[in-house]
Design goal:
The protein is mainly beta. It has one helix and eleven strands, in the order αβββββββββββ. Strands 1, 3, 5, 6, 7, 8, 10 and 11 form an eight-stranded mixed β-sheet that branches. A three-stranded antiparallel β-sheet has the order 2-4-9, with no helix packed on it.
Length: 158
Amino acid sequence: MKTMKQIFLSMAVSLCLISFISCSNDEENEVDLRLGSVPEQSINIDNRFELTLSETVLDPSNMQPIKGIVANHSEEEIVMGEEYNIEYYKDSKWYEVPFPENFCFTDIGLIVRPNGTNDFNIYFFPDNYKYKSGKYRVCKYIAGGGGRQWIVAEFIVK
């Protein structure tokens, strides 16, 4: 029969092992990612509309805002909002990078004139999500060209 001291010692060793295992995990502070919500069949379906980024290679220790530029290579206006998604490519799938809790975009319609451009700021919120090396993309929803679609631009975190 175990004494109280042996039981206490066993529990203490177990707790230390659990703490060591969880602290040594290389996924430390990783946020649970959910699958991206952008349907692949609705991305860049009309090459008259394009999304580019002011920078395409980023340093994870310096995730400063960059510009997204929407180009309209058509003869009609398109409409976009301020919102965008950031997704991370892992295991052959895209996963949404979460925005901070209670974060929201201003719901506004921005016009991109025929053969014109409009830019917007892309914020990464590095205090909310730890960016790892890999492939990411910015996804933006637009309306124009007889329908709605997503336009995307990829970037790399080194």
